[in-house]
Amino acid sequence: MDRFKTMDSFVRVATAGSFSAAAKQLGMSRALVSLHVTDLERRLGVRLLNRTTRCLTLTEAGASYLEFCQRMLAEMNEQESSIAQIQKEPRGSLKVTAPKSFGTLYLSDAVVSFSAQYPNIQVSLILEDYSFRAYDFVDNGLDVAVRLGDLPDSSLIARKIATLQWVVCASPKYLEQHGEPKTPADLGKHPCLAHVNLDPNDRAWRLHDSDNLISVKISGTFSSNSALVLRKAAMAGLGIGYLPLYCIEDDLKTGALRKLLPNYSPPQRPIYVVYPPTARVPERVRTFVDFLAHWFGKTSSEKSKPNPEKKNVKRGRREGQRTVRPALGRI
Question: Can you give the pTM of this predicted structure?
Fold first, then answer.
């Protein structure tokens, strides 16, 4: 029989003065409360209560044990409340991974702001360009991964929080020397700056007009796995770039880079926050994911950047949240 239940029954009987009153408080039968106290006395080998037809009184051992039980039950309730509070309050360590260029130029401001707002969370932002794998959560002690691009299904949970805009661009210097492509097919005649990762479509750029999605094979003499490096190559006139807007927005405003093919647009790319499934998501993870969704929504309205997914609070789920296997998504 559960020791703490029998201790609780004994305390209720001793303080209420009867088995019937204690049973009413506990929401159980009088017989079960009596069984709890009898089992406790048998285990201790002493009588705790003097029972008469008129009243119950504590024995000397019972009075001493009552104080002990009250203290133990109070400490247990306090510890349980403390543990439950840890789950509710955003605190503890939070290890986040993201692609280098995206993390440096776009995500870092959000994470720094989050850390300032939640000082009880110890945040570690790890920026790495590698193929993310589901077991990295365990092997590398990760809590959250921010990934770019479509994600195939798996046991992990992913929430789409925004989309990234992409731009085909080149420097004025390059355009003076090589001319400007007028259609997507013209890209095949120009040196293009390829992003190197494990995506098989790296050497095929996609663009769409109002009706069609067009895939164009590209070639060139310079490639990198970093959008920051590819931006520098485009600025230097090495070729035509296919870059995320967050990386070159200021360059477009100053004229250091020019947007090409204005009648065609690269498909937007989703931003996902990925984390492992658990019976109860830690509050620090939930708070971080909600913060990022709000942050990207705010920057979207203020700077015409990504649009976040709207929340759907039904059963604690959110629109855009699904079970996935992380894709490669590195920029």
Answer: 0.62
For residues 3 and 10, the answer to whether their CB atoms sit within 8 Å is no
Instruction: Identify the residue whose tokens are 């870092």.
Output: 108
Q: Are residues 34 and 106 in the same domain?
A: no
How buried is residue 126: exposed, middle or buried, by Cβ count under 10 Å (0-12/13-18/19+)? middle
Tell me: do 160 and 309 sit in the same domain: yes
Contact 252, 259 (CB under 8 A): yes
Which H, E and C letters describe 5-32, residue by residue?
Answer: HHHHHHHHHHHHCCHHHHHHHHCCCHHH
pLDDT tens sequence across 56-76: 899 999 999 999 999 999 988
Range of the domain at 242: 166-259
Is residue 330 one of the residues assigned to a domain?
no
What are 26's strand-pairing partners?
none
Of 205, 204, 243, 210, which Cα lies nearest the Cα of 224?
243
